Records
---
Amino acid sequence: MTQKVTLVRLAAVVLGFSALVAHAQDPLASWNDGPAKQAIVEFVKTTTTQGSPQFVPPEARIATFDQDGTLWVEHPMYTQVTYCFERVPTLVKEKPELKNKEPFKTVLSGNREAIAKLSTNQLVEILEATLTGMSVDEFRAEAKKWLSEAKDARWKRAYTELTYQPMQEVLRYLRDKGFKTYIVTGGGQDFVRVFAEQTYGIPPEQVVGTVSGTKYGYDKNGKPFLTKEPKLLLNDNNAGKPEGIHLMIGRRPVAAFGNSTGDRQMLEYTKAGDGARLAMLVLHDDAEREYAYGPAQGLPNTKVGTFTQALYDEAKKNGWIVISMKNDWKKIFAFEP
Amino acid sequence: MTQKVTLVRLAAVVLGFSALVAHAQDPLASWNDGPAKQAIVEFVKTTTTQGSPQFVPPEARIATFDQDGTLWVEHPMYTQVTYCFERVPTLVKEKPELKNKEPFKTVLSGNREAIAKLSTNQLVEILEATLTGMSVDEFRAEAKKWLSEAKDARWKRAYTELTYQPMQEVLRYLRDKGFKTYIVTGGGQDFVRVFAEQTYGIPPEQVVGTVSGTKYGYDKNGKPFLTKEPKLLLNDNNAGKPEGIHLMIGRRPVAAFGNSTGDRQMLEYTKAGDGARLAMLVLHDDAEREYAYGPAQGLPNTKVGTFTQALYDEAKKNGWIVISMKNDWKKIFAFEP
């Protein structure tokens, strides 16, 4: 082999990485060209190009994402609530005294009409009974097992497959550009942590959620463990989202993504900072490929992931971008043909 | 220039970085050779060498550090408590009704004997009044200003200069080996966040501390802000440390560093995990270069950073390493000649 050939090969190795990057595919391939995709690309360009007047230093590149309805399907019911209901038979095996006690009796009956009529307090009672009282490790094992077996009724797929491909692309794109991506969810922090790393590439320490306290103690062998307690520390919805962001991150995000009225304050808080800011809301307007609900823009009303007309108007007024699932997304799920 | 020369130069560029690393200086240069330094080096080697039976994947490399007395000086009084006392005159200007009210009146008197006799409840009242009630941004600005001006009485230096050089080396060494370094402090989370990035290279989202809630609201122009509320969410001392670690990190650390009885549970929790674990305690046994207090090993007793003999015995029994400031540290502060 001549020196010239060796030199060319060595140079090829050195230059290979930048060549690969230059020829990379569109990082937002599942997005149709339009104002939503354009807003994301523009925001990333303006905040990450050295010398740009709106350049954001890498350590301040914080992007927060609601989960239910923003990163994965939340209809007909939040996945975690389904988990809690499906945990009730196991719970009753462990605590037989609950079998004939409401609201557990109704859940066990399987009577959908009666279940739909449970009060908020009764729902909270079910959530508390199924999400607390066990050790952190036991909870993780139980939730992991359920997630590996349970299937959504419509797509007959694991819930963790029902994530939105376009949002997965946004997560990756932002991380490739030096952003730290966080989940800021109304769902349980420990529940979402079980699958966030594998499903979204988001580690447990970057999951902010509704969270209850734990209690440190020792087992009979003197080994320490933490028990999940029914003591609410943070309801990570509405005003709780910026409060949770301050608690867990301590910086104001520069980009935030949501889909419901519960995300309003997070988006306001994000936009209130100086410099370039990106605030986006996913509108579920695709009954055919996913679901359609609002009630914004005349879409059917819902209690799960409510997107009011007032929120829509606030978005339009303040330069938040509303993402139309129907028009902005070429593809919704990775498993689509 | 011949092709051979070009080739050699190109190869030199490619290989340059690893050569630099190979010839790097001792990363723990301020440590004397001895069991403490050896334990750190061994732990890093065994957890970060690919193929080692105790290899820890990068995402699980979590190391937690107490702050007061572990990373910086805590005697004669925790710096944050000094901050709170020195804030009282400003507070009284804003709220003149406090001027003749206890415990503020005593603090304003400057009578050290009377101040030393304040009850715990009175201390809590002072902390609450000086650390809450303002916006998160106002608090940050106030604390930052104070830290830039205040001087420790003994060394006549800014408090942020009173960090231990050997521990700064451990922080950097662990980060260079892929660890995420966290502060887990009994001090206020927001207070420590003000200087942790600049002082330790630890970003706000990696500071876990004693933390109160915030409240989201709007100013008269409709701009959102967060107010610091006197509602304790977590007392990050003793059992609160593993609880805070679960809340904020969601993973068990593989290495933990402390110096007092308040760090016991964090070290127990860290050591209770599988595989290689490192648990270390700084013993303040150097009255000449810093301070000497215990009461472990016959050192003078103290209420600030108490290190009991029981903790010392637990450490020895469980393979935690006690760091002797006197014997293990060549140098304590970066500013030493």
---
Amino acid sequence: MYRWASDLFPIHRSLMGEGNRTTLRYLKGLLPDLELFEVSSGTKVFDWRIPDEWTIRDAYVCQEGKTRRLIDLRKSNLHVVGYSTPVDAVMSLEELQPHLYSLPEMPDAIPYVTSYYQPQWGFCLTHAERAQLTPGNYRVVIDSSLAPGSLSYAELILPGQEDNEVLLSTYVCHPSMANNELSGPVVTTALARWLATIKNRRFTYRIVFAPETLGAITYLHRNLSQMKAKTVAGFVVTCVGDDRAYSVVHSRMGDTLADRVATHVMKRHAPDYQDYSYLHRGSDERQYCSPGVDLPVVSILRSLYGSYPEYHTSKDNLDLISPRGLHGAFEALRKCIVGIEGNYRYQVNHTCEPQLGRRGFYPTTHTPQTQAAVQDMMNVLAYADGEHDVFQIADRIGIGFEECLTILDKLYDAQVITRSAAGQVGAAARHSKGA
Amino acid sequence: MYRWASDLFPIHRSLMGEGNRTTLRYLKGLLPDLELFEVSSGTKVFDWRIPDEWTIRDAYVCQEGKTRRLIDLRKSNLHVVGYSTPVDAVMSLEELQPHLYSLPEMPDAIPYVTSYYQPQWGFCLTHAERAQLTPGNYRVVIDSSLAPGSLSYAELILPGQEDNEVLLSTYVCHPSMANNELSGPVVTTALARWLATIKNRRFTYRIVFAPETLGAITYLHRNLSQMKAKTVAGFVVTCVGDDRAYSVVHSRMGDTLADRVATHVMKRHAPDYQDYSYLHRGSDERQYCSPGVDLPVVSILRSLYGSYPEYHTSKDNLDLISPRGLHGAFEALRKCIVGIEGNYRYQVNHTCEPQLGRRGFYPTTHTPQTQAAVQDMMNVLAYADGEHDVFQIADRIGIGFEECLTILDKLYDAQVITRSAAGQVGAAARHSKGA
Amino acid sequence: MYRWASDLFPIHRSLMGEGNRTTLRYLKGLLPDLELFEVSSGTKVFDWRIPDEWTIRDAYVCQEGKTRRLIDLRKSNLHVVGYSTPVDAVMSLEELQPHLYSLPEMPDAIPYVTSYYQPQWGFCLTHAERAQLTPGNYRVVIDSSLAPGSLSYAELILPGQEDNEVLLSTYVCHPSMANNELSGPVVTTALARWLATIKNRRFTYRIVFAPETLGAITYLHRNLSQMKAKTVAGFVVTCVGDDRAYSVVHSRMGDTLADRVATHVMKRHAPDYQDYSYLHRGSDERQYCSPGVDLPVVSILRSLYGSYPEYHTSKDNLDLISPRGLHGAFEALRKCIVGIEGNYRYQVNHTCEPQLGRRGFYPTTHTPQTQAAVQDMMNVLAYADGEHDVFQIADRIGIGFEECLTILDKLYDAQVITRSAAGQVGAAARHSKGA
């Protein structure tokens, strides 16, 4: 995953444009079934309209009459404000200043700034560089153009035994930043490759790579009724590369299957994880959980966007993320998916306790361990009432879902319990009686 | 308000009688549309019957053969037990003692005692005065009569755009006491005068001045079905004059719109207010919230009846209340009403987040303040789902209802959201899904 | 009760057999209407089958060629593993060891071991005795037989004015142990004798004496639909003899009438009682509360099975239990039953507060006590709304159910309130709105 991130790091992504297409084609190399889509400028998507596509060829600032570039897009694609209008002019430092963005409190970081919907131009630079600009005239060049084009996104559908779906969504629209953003696509890609290898996959997986906000809105515009009818749970995958923290951002009402799964998994995977309500949202759960959309979607992250100092600066680079950081997030999400795949409502087949002894489920030797194992099995049976799902049973008993599934599988194979998938889609999953 | 209280202070009010009518006529001077009602003695009102009307002309105690009045109604109308039967006799101090009421623990206060439904007579005096009574014979005179008359109450209906109503109820039945009672009628009068000036008043206001308990019962007997069908929220206004505390007494089940509004407003208006359950009730919420009546009524008070030492004594006088105390309660109630007037369920018009930028709702400069403002607006939109009302949105986000209304108004004017008033009356308001 | 336990202590009870019948016949001597039932070996009961009946005539171990019995059933009927297969052999100490059970951590206690469903034989002895066994050959005799017979249980139905039932269930299957087991049958017997004396018993009482687990399963197999349709509340009575603690084990969902009653009563009867969830269950609530059975059954105990050191050893003898211990449990259960008998939903007959004064419910003298009494009565009336039952009213107000019943009886006799028994059976009792 880290290598993929390194490959993708230099590409100049934006809301739309060639950088995005290059990125998606690279991912298609890793996920052959990934399908790429283009949505033309001008297309109306709900309350929004796809804007024109921005192309940036060069951007720099140098002293008038000199050639040494003091600010140079070739050194960092963060140097130019995203969607800057073209400019080629000579101006005084005073005139230039309102177009410069730097961070006094982080003097060696270049901030990340965009202006997708308001025409303007600007340069981003470190505050240290800015301080060295001396009064005088500067040549200011942004060689960009804005023209009808298309918004690019990619979708991978991995069909399962059920039509019901699990959503994984990540975004492709940030220039060279590693935790926010490349960690998202690469962990999602790794999850997709792992999912593709699972035989007898139960759920269908809908995996989406799209620019943040407008991409998610566009995607929902095209797929909403389908997704509302089928989505069991979903995860927005972003900021999953550093190794400092784990976080969960909950859905709007905080009570979907995705919320319950994320809470259950993270309490064991990373007991000191940060649990954020929807008020702390910041990525595409904003769309997936909006009123009327209300998909059961949460976000599982390492350090939350906005909460770490390197966020939206040039310091969010490949040093910030690590194979270990990426792998930890991958594992957390993998566990959630394993749990959702195994999540049924189970119901014991017999009135009163079944006789476990004649099925070999009673230990012949008694140790504290075997006693605890029998007790766990009896407890699982006690709540296998057709109303509790696996996570609800596990939470009630105080065991991990994996252990709960192991017991349920054993009982299911012995035909002591039956199972049903009823009532798991979307908002319906909320109102399960066992909750 | 303080001046009105001063004017009304000397009048000798009781359960029924001329003092009450004088008081109501004074209020009619301030509220020309106030309508006065009389309900004849003997009228059955639910489980009760309007008793005869008590007239008190004189009451005193002096030593036999002397004229200096040791206890004298003319000095304080608290000196005679309310509804005392007539007496004109000479008796020993021993015979008199069982008819005297004083407070050993507050030796310079005259207690307030009534006996509306059991015929008896008595005098109230300070414990200091009582201690000075020497053995011997006393002339004891109470010149009172009990005869068919009528219970007096007054009602002001301020019609609004909606038939649905907000109830304000206060009582008129206590002789010269200031916090419990006159603060109630004067704050209610001030609220009524303020309400009368509001253009485009949304709700109809039902404002009731009646003797406590029996007056409320009588009023409900005449208006219950109407009130049950229309009441959105209501407030019993009493003990709103001192400046030592704020209190809320909740409705019987504690979950009506009035409860939510009172809690929301008081947490901001007076964060250290005392929150009392219905078990601490003591005024006409006893009737308004009784089983089967179950109107959404709470009480907002300064110091709770029974909780302050001067309660039901001559110390509850004009020194106890203050313009500042009255004004604080007025403001708390005014805020509740403003909130209720603006309380709709709002619903965003668009699937996914609406584009705020093109409507000018995104700041062009970014400061922590503008960021917070955008975040509040986004949060309001996130819960404008047609299920949360204004107070539920505000409570979820953690902002005041005024701020929430400001944002909602802006969004409503921009046609980003629509609103509905559904499900707000009475018990129905309880079961809102957003709660 | 203690004498009954002393009488029953020496009898060798087991899952089935003559010891059980002797025990039940003894109880029938105390409860003439007790009816005894036999269910033949081989009968299928849900997932189980009644096994053959075990008869034990003699069991001992002595050194080869000697007659002094080193382990001797005649000294304690715990010495032989329950349902041991017959053996008559000479073997070395090494061969004997796997058949011996002792407790190193309690060297002077004989453990209690059974093997109902797996054919094997064994002896239980103190660890001290075991340590004295010297290498050499031993004569090992168990003179037992396993042959078709019957499982014995007894049932007492005490009819009430209502068909609805309260269940008391206890078990008869342990050899000489006092707290776990005899305390259960003797306290249950005492409760049955007390219940038989109650005139105008409201509920029908179903009182069951059966072997643990299989007996309860058998009983449910024969009576389930009846019990589901009629059971208001039930109590498993076990471990009710020592005087060290009180405990409650709740039903599977923890929200039945039995749970509420047990919590209410125990908070007052023994404020430091231990409250255990269903995860700590261990007796026949395992069957009564199993999914699909879901009777409203809890267990009220003194020291919880498994939680006290003497559990399932020869130390659980008559010294462990006491008249005082038994009586305390009897009282706790008696209070629960009194509460359930009096538990209705009450509804005030009048709109607004009824006038208590003219019914003599207002004190003529005012003291803090009379004030509190009036307040309690007003509070009871406030929640006599037809939705709260007695325990819900009492819990809301913070008084004991006895006090609440006293007030309600007074109001009921004065026709101020009416009552109904609606919605009290089984799971329906769970969903009462007042909860």
---
Amino acid sequence: MGIIVQKFGGSSVADKEKLYNVANIITKSYDEGNKVVVVVSAQGKTTDGLVSKAKEITDNPFKREYDVLLSTGEQITISLLAMVLNKMGKKAVSFTGWQLPIITDNNYSNAKIKYIDKSRILEKLNEDYIVIIAGFQGIDENENITTLGRGGSDTTAVALAATLEADRCEIYTDVDGVFLTDPKIIKDVKKLDEISYEEMLELATAGAKVLHNRCVEIGKKRDVDIIVKSSLEEGTGGTVVKHQDNLEDMYISGIAKDNNIARITIIGVENKLGRTYKIFDLLAKENINIDIIVQPIGEHFEKDISFTISKENLKKTLEVLKKNIDIIGAKDVRYREDLCKISVVGVGMINNPGIAAKIFEALYENNINMHMITTSEIKISVLVNFEDADIAVKSIHDKFFL
Amino acid sequence: MGIIVQKFGGSSVADKEKLYNVANIITKSYDEGNKVVVVVSAQGKTTDGLVSKAKEITDNPFKREYDVLLSTGEQITISLLAMVLNKMGKKAVSFTGWQLPIITDNNYSNAKIKYIDKSRILEKLNEDYIVIIAGFQGIDENENITTLGRGGSDTTAVALAATLEADRCEIYTDVDGVFLTDPKIIKDVKKLDEISYEEMLELATAGAKVLHNRCVEIGKKRDVDIIVKSSLEEGTGGTVVKHQDNLEDMYISGIAKDNNIARITIIGVENKLGRTYKIFDLLAKENINIDIIVQPIGEHFEKDISFTISKENLKKTLEVLKKNIDIIGAKDVRYREDLCKISVVGVGMINNPGIAAKIFEALYENNINMHMITTSEIKISVLVNFEDADIAVKSIHDKFFL
């Protein structure tokens, strides 16, 4: 029989009852004859508790030590889940990131997986053990502890599925799959049975919180079927994220809302060759990811450059830019945190030029101001005021589906 | 300059304020030019919290997974202390047990240190870092996580001091050294400036909670000066545990009380060669340590054998003995948990035959019944009823020192 990787997030393993629920899902797969590898996150609010312990000391902890701290959360979960499975009479064994090891680069708090040694897992699977792995963590080549950043346990799970050539990777969450948009905004919104990696990637980057883009990227690169489903209810089988050949008849596959953005505007940048490069090179060196960039066509002596970043990078971004304002050759740096990004994703979009117009029409009809617009082959994103965001999602949804 | 190892227990690192207090002690030593290696325990009640998480699931967790769980406590402390020192402008770096590594046997929850790789510590000391090590933990030769059992962080500290050939090992605690007996029982009791390893060992085994006997054994074997002192008050310099040449003039160096004992009596053991061996061999195989043994002189067909153990081994001991009652050739196994062991320790004792008599006299004058008595070269222990224990300590103290 084949290998299945199952990943359970923090809310799915939050207490003893939840651990037993998860153990039942695992043993069901195991008793059906599968070899099961389980990846878990830290329990419930454990990580938040660790973060606030660090925050009590400093707003800016040395990242090496911060990762030593955060990685304890998943280690607690693996041992408790192994105990539950043992108690249920199953053979189960846990491994931390370093025990395999999972080797990453040394970009603390946002490390990327370079290599997973699968030998200990295969050895234990062959001895009929259920193997439980701590998500979110690894070590660099000097055996320093690293963590993978937001959505890190999903990334661990899909990377393991790829390494083990697993039949599939099941990501258990508190909703029964991927929906066209947030069911909290629009009731009875359609659940997708399947979605392509490309669309899922755009949705992930656009702020849909179901899957982190890094895990989808690995899935796409290594052709891992990722199944998103509910750990709490007997669902419809969730949503399969997979390679899709027949994309022609697809249209819009998601509308996402992202609150976690800040917009930076650099005022009065001299219109000289290399200025833009310089700015984004400075930010890249600090590992700050840039999302939407808007730069006017350079016809004047000066220009204003705007772009969006995640809120957690705001402080660092402002520091870097203000420290280097002379090098950049700019007059001022401004920012706004009260904006929201609405993204509409669909592989069919590029061949349906009317879609953008229809989106703008929906927003116009509801008096919603657009602050920035970007388009890619399969995505259109607009920035709107925070208070307009939910109406924006609903108006776009209704325009296309009612 | 030389290397100093400083160990801080759970109550000394319980919160942010305590961590700053500890960091001040560390930086003082560092600023005096010493190379400082710090060993810490889990914060305050952290370990208790982890234990109860496991207890919610099972009374008898698989020990491999239990150690995975418990070892997270110290990992949290090392990262937080490193952050505090960093915040204070010092270079500090943390290492877990596996990162050095500290290699132990695979006797989970009570593992013994076999070897410590000091290379990473020396490298960081040479770069002027303060090096912070997680106490209580190690890994076996297959990279499974192990913990060292009660007093494990003391053991880590002294083993590190031995391996690093440190000038001294400072054990910080909430009292200012080793006292003749528990200051909670007798106020203004004398603090010892120095004590030999042998006496400290007897006191540790006798239940004085200042130092665990395993750390004293390592100190003795490798000639490490161990200094016990307070982390909270500017004390008198604490107590030095060290090799002592001139033992002649010593007398009594401690009176200890141990509540954590259970007495087992095996009834009606056939008086045949090898029976006693068989019993203690069975217990040794389960890693159960035996303390006082009383076996009557074998003149009858049957005999009763009594011995004491730690309370936490009671359940297992009864299980082992009852399962093997036919092999042992006994009629019944009984136990009592309501006894206390009072021990009087002093290297001078053996040359002062009147001491035992004086102890018995003190107890007799206070109507205290003695249930078992054992004597070694430097220790006399008696079992008394739980409710008599404090009066016993006080009466012995007063007999000798008033």
